[in-house]
Amino acid sequence: MLGLLRDGTLREAGEQALAAPAPTLAVGDLRLRAPIPDPPAVRDFMTFERHVEGVARLGGTDATVPERWYEAPAFYFTNPYAILGPADDVPVPPGSRMFDLELEVAAVIGRTGRDIHPDDADAYVAGYTILVDWSARDVQFAEMQVRLGPTKGKDTATTLGPVLVTPDELQPWRTDTSFGLTMTVEINGERLGQDRWSSMAFSYADMIAYASRGAEIRPGDVLGSGTCGGGCLAELWGREGLNAHRPLQPGDVVTVTVEQLGTLTTRVVPGVEPIPIPPARRGR
């Protein structure tokens, strides 16, 4: 897939497959990999206001969305070497006792660009796929106290899949920022939350323009939308308290669905214990 994106031949390959279909196999008989298993870069944004407001309440029930959030689509870089596919289990990150999931939709970039205007940015999207950002909240909260991150709290795994859907397939549901489709999260068969993809406060064009400001984006780059409203445990903890739902633990089954993009079902498995690191040498 990455080769097709870099060569600009993705559409041609699809047309050839339709014109001369080869023997097919049932999806259930296959183990699908991530549509982009080795992205050059992964940027994860925060574009759902309801999610930002809910997580902000972890700092106090009267907390609100920071005014700075409305000014630009903030993002961080996450680990491109930690991509999981639709059939892969996810391990609990080393040392984490507050493991969480975050349901997003990623845009995959199909063209190289820099300093792209929002009016031109949609042409850089090759397709969309479900993204699950697996988060060690305790690790994340601790590391962000030193005004860096998130880093290790988001370093263990990102799930992509099950397919890459091209923009033309989603055109009937197009809205000003994304698409009028439903996003749903279940844990062990029980509904955690639901939102509309169209609730994004920034569009993918906004995200691409900001990501490319003074920097290059390349084919295969992944741009996550950020977590939808109701799409993670941290938001629930912010609104209802830490006892509202226990963190994820080995044996849990997480199922996420986005209309027209498909469903991902992931099993949580034990991770490894962290290798101890000595504290900093003070006074150097």
Automatic annotation (TrEMBL):
<dbReference type="InterPro" id="IPR036663">
    <property type="entry name" value="Fumarylacetoacetase_C_sf"/>
</dbReference>
<dbReference type="Pfam" id="PF01557">
    <property type="entry name" value="FAA_hydrolase"/>
</dbReference>
<dbReference type="InterPro" id="IPR011234">
    <property type="entry name" value="Fumarylacetoacetase-like_C"/>
</dbReference>
<feature type="domain" description="Fumarylacetoacetase-like C-terminal">
    <location>
        <begin position="45"/>
        <end position="269"/>
    </location>
</feature>
<protein>
    <submittedName>
        <fullName>Fumarylacetoacetate hydrolase family protein</fullName>
    </submittedName>
</protein>
<dbReference type="GO" id="GO:0016787">
    <property type="term" value="F:hydrolase activity"/>
</dbReference>
<keyword id="KW-0378">Hydrolase</keyword>
